[in-house]
């Protein structure tokens, strides 16, 4: 009995000592864990961006911050994660602008179909004054706009038949983002838009709840949509920006230098993501063909552009044309 008692006492004392050491060690380093969320897989362009964010933040802060990536919608869909930023349950999010207009209406302008003609023009606008203005405006809506990143030009996929003209898309049930500008544009095309958070999309396609969806090559590749979709049409109907957002709950509590690290990490993240988007634009279509998708590359965009035109009037009636004019006059 005595021996067992003595051993237990020794074990307890040792345990307490180890715990005290661990606590001391943690205090000495004061490492703060930063949780970064996004909806795509850990092989996606967002994940490449998350890696760059992590590497940059941990290097600049010399280990004061450590970053943990939560991919694949582990922290919820994009709308839920943006809400999380506002209340401080998540620290950094890489998201498309899909649901962002619900929080920052000024960003809706970027979601207008056929607004940008190519990557060069979109990047030029987002990297200039207009992009900066929009990032700054996020502060008014209880978010911190850290950097413009990228998702890519969106294309239509479906399980029914090849789409070459808006008439081919008519009557299809297509999942859209929770974005009223997008929904309006698809309605004008005769499509039945079904808004849905991204983490539900694969299953909805698999179960036939919807016939199709639309996303950039990057997302189609990262989500293996070829497993549930046969047809891809390179409609390029809208540029899909992504943005790296921070939580004001976190960032308002940091000093100037620390905040600077987050902005620098976000810039590195966006640059790495854009590079991956460009790579997938070069290689992704071939990869998808190899997976068995039929790809319509020769799409006449004019009738699509014509079909979605009323979405512009609906946007300007509600939000005015100031942002749109600024973009058109930006020289990009
Ligand atoms: O941001 O919801 C979507 O279709 C987005 O493109 C996706 O979540 C990546």
Summarize the structure.
The chain has 14 helices and 9 strands. Helix 2 runs antiparallel to helix 11 and helix 7 packs antiparallel against helix 13.
What's the alpha carbon Rg, rounded to whole Å? Answer: 23 Å
Total number of domains: 1
CATH homologous superfamily designation:
Bacterial extracellular solute-binding protein, family 7
Dominant shape: globular
Q: Give the second-level CATH assignment, the architecture.
A: 3-Layer(aba) Sandwich
Strand content: 15-25%
What is the chain-wise order of helices and strands?
A: HEHEHEHHEHEHEHEHEHHEHHH
Biggest β-sheet strands, sense, barrel: 9 strands, mixed
Q: What is the straight-line distance between the termini?
A: 84 Å
> How many helical elements?
14
* Global structural class: alpha/beta
**Chain-averaged pLDDT:** 93
- Examine the coordinates and then state which fold CATH places here, giving the name of the CATH topology: D-Maltodextrin-Binding Protein, domain 2
The CATH top-level class label: Alpha Beta
The helicity comes to 40-55%
Unreliable segments (pLDDT under 50, ≥5 consecutive)? Answer: 1-28
Walk me through the structure.
Strands 1, 2, 3, 4, 5, 6, 7, 8 and 9 form a 9-stranded mixed sheet that branches. The chain is 48% helix and 19% strand. It has 332 residues and is of the alpha/beta class. It is globular and about 60 Å long. It has a single domain (31-328), classed as D-Maltodextrin-Binding Protein, domain 2 (3-Layer(aba) Sandwich), CATH 3.40.190.170. The protein contains 14 helices and 9 strands. The structure holds (2R,3R)-2,3,4-trihydroxybutanoic acid. Residues 39-40, 78, 95-96, 98, 151, 177, 198, 215, 219, 240 line the site of (2R,3R)-2,3,4-trihydroxybutanoic acid (EAX).
């Amino acid at each position: 009995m005595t021996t067992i008692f003595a051993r237990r006492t020794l074990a307890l004392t040792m345990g307490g000592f180890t715990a005290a050491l661990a606590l001391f060690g943690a205090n000495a380093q004061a490492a703060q864990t930063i949780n970064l969320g996004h909806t795509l897989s850990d092989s996606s362009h967002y994940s490449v961006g998350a890696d760059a964010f992590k590497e940059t933040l941990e290097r600049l802060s010399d280990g004061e911050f450590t970053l943990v990536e939560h991919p694949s919608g582990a922290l919820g869909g994009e709308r839920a994660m943006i809400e999380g930023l506002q209340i401080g349950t998540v620290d950094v999010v890489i998201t498309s602008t899909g649901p962002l207009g619900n929080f920052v209406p000024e960003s809706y302008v970027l979601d207008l179909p056929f607004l940008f003609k190519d990557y060069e023009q979109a990047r030029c606008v987002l990297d200039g004054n207009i992009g900066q203005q929009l990032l700054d405006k996020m502060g008014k809506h209880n978010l911190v706009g850290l950097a413009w990143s990228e998702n890519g030009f969106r294309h239509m996929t479906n399980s029914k038949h090849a789409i070459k003209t808006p008439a081919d898309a008519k009557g299809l049930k297509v999942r859209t983002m929770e974005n009223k500008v997008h929904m309006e544009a698809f309605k004008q095309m005769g499509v039945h838009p079904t808004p849905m958070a991204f983490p539900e999309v694969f299953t909805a396609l698999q179960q036939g709840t919807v016939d199709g969806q639309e996303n950039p090559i990057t997302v189609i590749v990262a989500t293996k949509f070829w497993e549930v979709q046969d047809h891809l049409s390179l409609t390029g109907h809208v540029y899909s920006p992504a943005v790296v957002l921070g939580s004001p709950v976190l960032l308002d509590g940091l000093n100037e230098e620390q905040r600077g690290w987050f902005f620098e990490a976000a810039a590195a993240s966006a640059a790495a993501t854009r590079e991956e988007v460009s790579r997938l634009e070069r290689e992704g279509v071939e990869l998808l063909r190899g997976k068995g998708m039929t790809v319509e590359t020769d799409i006449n965009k004019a009738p699509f552009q014509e079909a979605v035109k009323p979405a512009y009037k609906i946007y300007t009636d509600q939000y005015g044309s100031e942002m749109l004019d600024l973009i058109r006059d930006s020289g990009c």
